[in-house]
Design goal:
- The chain is α/β, with parallel strands linked by helices and 259 residues long.
- It folds into two domains: 4-127, Rossmann fold; 132-258, no CATH class.
- The protein has helices at residues 13-24, 39-48, 60-64, 83-91, 106-119, 130-136, 178-187, 204-213, and strands spanning 4-9, 29-35, 56-57, 72-75, 95-99, 123-126, 225-235, 238-248, 252-258.
- A six-stranded parallel sheet has the order 3-2-1-4-5-6, with helices on both faces.
- The longest helix is centred in the middle third of the chain and has 14 residues, at 106-119.
- Bound molecules: nicotinamide-adenine-dinucleotide (NAD).
């Protein structure tokens, strides 16, 4: 059987995870191209999958404008960057696995659906609800999303706190210290998620550098958090509430989950 050729758009956490899955089923599929602006992440995926240099790009537009050279594309850019590549690759006849959410607004979702139907390509969205089942410990019967950002606002920032954990005098006592969390992961010998999300090379020096300059090292009270979701469900006597504080600009920057 011919191997399915797949392009990865966005070689961040999810793109890299999917690509690793493909490697585990290398008799069935291969990664044939990658588009990723961050050099180290792009090079890591290209190296791991022996991708020929003409099929390695900084931006997905470069790959979609080439004559079609793969069967499918995995789109794993950030939420607000899904619509454009999804429509462009559909128009070129690529089958698509799109990361969830399809798009941040209904109109964009409808446009994507309309274009994939027109193109008659296979289209799947990776929506995993398994974690809801996990936190509920029973079948979730309803989900609601509402609320406003309450705690992680600049005015709640502890006195004397710096803009980054690495040079913050409050950090040793702060429950949200990114330094304690990520360096702690390295010290425990972790090499994969979540620490692999902030740097492609997991060691203490690269993690410190990522916290010094990258989005994950910012003070949680200074992040551009913009969403609060409350999910609830009930089955018989059990009721749970999950509060998710998330942030997204061009990239998702910080997530704290309180149960
Ligand atoms: N299904 C799930 O369980 C699950 C879990 C986490 C995240 N997600 C979703 O997956 C998506 C990716 O999340 P992530 O955590 O991997 O984010 P990430 O920030 O680690 O990866 C996104 C990548 O897209 C790259 N990118 C930006 N512009 C690009 C361009 N023009 N061309 C090619 N690549 C470009 C970024 O440089 C980055 O490396 C998001 O939509 C997120 O909501 C899904």
């Amino acid at each position: 059987m011919r191997k399915i050729k797949i392009i990865v758009v966005g070689a961040g956490d999810r793109g890299n995870t999917y690509a690793s899955r493909v490697l585990k089923h290398s008799e069935k599929a291969e990664i044939a191209g990658v588009a990723e602006p961050r050099e180290k992440w792009r090079e890591r995926l290209a190296r791991n999958h022996n991708i020929p240099s003409p099929n390695i790009a900084e931006d997905w537009r470069e790959l979609v404008s080439k004559p079609k050279f793969a069967d499918a594309v995995i789109i794993a850019t950030q939420d607000s960057q899904h619509k454009e590549p999804a429509i462009a690759f559909a128009k070129q006849g690529y089958h698509i696995l799109l990361e969830k959410p399809m798009a941040p607004d209904e109109e964009s979702c409808r446009q994507i659906v309309s274009e994939v139907l027109k193109a008659e390509v296979i289209f799947a969205v990776c929506h995993d609800l398994d974690w809801i089942h996990y936190v509920m410990n029973c079948k979730c019967t309803s989900i609601q999303s509402f609320g406003t950002l309450k705690h992680f606002r600049a005015e709640q920032k502890p006195e004397g706190a710096a803009d980054r954990c690495v040079n913050c005098s409050v950090e040793p006592k702060c429950p949200y210290s990114a330094k304690r969390f990520y360096i702690g992961c390295v010290k425990k010998g972790a090499t994969g998620w979540p620490v692999s999300v902030i740097t492609p090379e997991v060691n203490e020096a690269s993690v410190m550098e990522a916290l010094r300059v990258g989005p994950y090292g910012r003070c949680v009270y200074n992040c551009d958090n913009d969403k609060t979701l409350i999910l609830s469900g009930a089955e018989e006597t059990l009721e749970s509430h999950l509060m998710v504080f998330a942030a997204e600009k061009s990239r998702r920057e910080n997530i704290v989950v309180n149960l």
